[in-house]
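ok new one. same drill as before - structure tokens go in, u give me an amino acid for every spot. 329 of them this time. try not to just spam alanines like last time pls lmao
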């Protein structure tokens, strides 16, 4: 019997469109509707791409690349824009707290050499991505958590801050009236930034940072700081990042899966679509949002989400634009 991997490879070699390959592999594929946009997208490198409407973050990263900076420096600087934006209630300062009122942050960064640094459950530090970068560059480890991550950050000169704003304090007070926990698609799941950059020499890096789900249980860590789930980079192939319900992304190791599918010949968009299909084959998806974003070594990019409403920002030499991702529903 022909194996799926061989089938995809053989079919790709024969010029069979990847959508047809996926239909053959996914019995439910016939149900998938495309709402808007096109599946295949080519962009010139260098480029910066990120989840949601993060235009300013992209432009900040792209400026660094234009000055011959590296992709890793670009993504680290870029995602700091929403981290310090009090109006962004899913990332850094101004992020929604957990159900005990504490803002706890997850972030990771991965460079073109396969190095990776991550912090999980970090409190009181406005720029968790910069701490993740320090974990990558200055420690023998890849991940620091909770108090240990905070102590490390302080030892590196980061300042301890209150990350709650008047708005998130008021929202939390309101939430306490019912204490109902029900993440809302594209509202509470909004704005986590996963960013991928390809620099002037063609190297790829990525970063992902979030305050996680609003009113989550204390101690909860999502997909965003986990290698292969919220972010994965393979400089020979491409990179992928995720936003949405982290539990679903973690269970399916989504970003690693997408990079492996691209290695096997799928386009970024088709690889994202297949990763979404893996989730919805296994669980009810009516109230579930996951959005994937990927780019390959050539600079082709693509995205796919379960629900409508997921957008991503693309910056190239020509412009910065916000694009609607295709969705399953
Ligand atoms: C998480 N994936 O912690 C994150 C949430 C998210 O926009 O993407 N919010 O599960």
């Amino acid at each position: 019997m022909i194996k799926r991997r061989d089938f995809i490879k053989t079919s790709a070699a024969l010029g069979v469109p990847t959508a047809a390959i996926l239909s053959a592999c996914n019995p439910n594929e016939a149900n998938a509707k495309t709402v808007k946009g096109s599946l295949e997208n080519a962009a010139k490198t260098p480029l910066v791409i990120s989840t949601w409407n993060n235009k300013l973050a992209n432009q900040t990263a792209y400026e660094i690349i234009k000055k011959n900076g590296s992709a890793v420096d670009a993504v680290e600087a870029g995602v700091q824009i929403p981290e310090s934006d009090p109006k962004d209630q899913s990332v850094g300062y101004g992020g929604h707290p957990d159900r005990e009122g504490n803002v706890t942050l997850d972030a990771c960064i991965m460079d073109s050499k396969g190095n990776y640094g991550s912090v999980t459950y970090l409190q009181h530090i406005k720029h968790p991505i910069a701490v993740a970068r320090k974990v990558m560059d200055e420690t023998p480890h890849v991940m620091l958590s909770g108090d240990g991550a905070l102590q490390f950050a302080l030892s590196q000169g980061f300042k301890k801050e209150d990350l709650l704003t008047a708005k998130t304090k008021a929202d939390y007070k309101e939430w306490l009236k019912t204490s109902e926990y029900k993440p809302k698609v594209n509202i509470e799941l909004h704005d986590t930034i996963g960013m991928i950059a390809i620099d002037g020499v063609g190297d790829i890096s990525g970063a992902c940072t979030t305050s996680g789900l609003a009113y989550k249980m204390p101690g909860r860590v999502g997909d965003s700081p986990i290698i292969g789930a919220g972010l994965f980079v393979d400089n020979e192939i491409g990179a992928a990042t995720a936003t949405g319900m982290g539990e679903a992304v973690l269970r399916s190791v989504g970003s690693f899966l997408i990079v492996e599918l691209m290695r096997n010949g799928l386009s970024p968009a088709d690889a994202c679509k297949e990763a979404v299909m893996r989730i919805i084959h296994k669980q009810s998806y009516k109230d579930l949002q996951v959005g994937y974003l990927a780019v390959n070594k050539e600079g082709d990019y693509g995205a796919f989400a379960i629900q409508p409403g997921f957008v991503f920002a693309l910056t190239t030499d020509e412009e910065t634009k916000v694009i609607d991702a295709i969705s399953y529903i």
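Residues 90, 189-192, 210, 212-213, 222-224, 243-246 surround N-hydroxy-L-asparagine (CB under 6 Å). and btw The two ends are 33 Å apart (CA to CA).
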